[in-house]
């Protein structure tokens, strides 16, 4: 994923935790807020309590790919932080995709849902 799509600084994460809209379930917590950039940016937070490094990195890779493949559907100028929960450990790619899409739709980050022509 290109750097312009990534949240890197602690300040960005804290801003979203404090002022962002939130959507929660057993797999993910998604924080969203309008940002200053001209594109949608994302950051991931995953505790060391969740699996080992291999498991954590696998989940992050899958979520990065989900974001990359759906990036064209997002409203511009939003920043996202995705906090991974223990329910994500055994989840398949399709389950994570469905969960992430649900959260983004709930938070109003996606304009057009398939079938709404």
The residue ranges in which pLDDT falls below 50 over 5 or more consecutive positions are: none
Helix content: 25-40%
Q: What is the architecture at the second tier of CATH?
A: 2-Layer Sandwich
What is the terminal-to-terminal distance?
30 Å
Beta-strand segment tally: 4
* Spatial order of the strands forming the largest sheet: 1-2-4-3
> Kindly state the mean pLDDT as a whole number?
89
Give the CATH level 1 class.
Alpha Beta
Number of domains: 1
Biggest sheet statistics: 4 strands, mixed
- Total number of helical segments? 3
Helix vs. strand class: alpha+beta
Fraction of residues in β-strands: 15-25%
Rg over CA atoms, rounded to whole Å, is 13 Å
Element-by-element helix/strand order: HEEEHEH
Which fold does the CATH topology refer to?
A: Ribosomal Protein S5, domain 2
User: What overall form do the CA principal axes indicate?
Assistant: globular
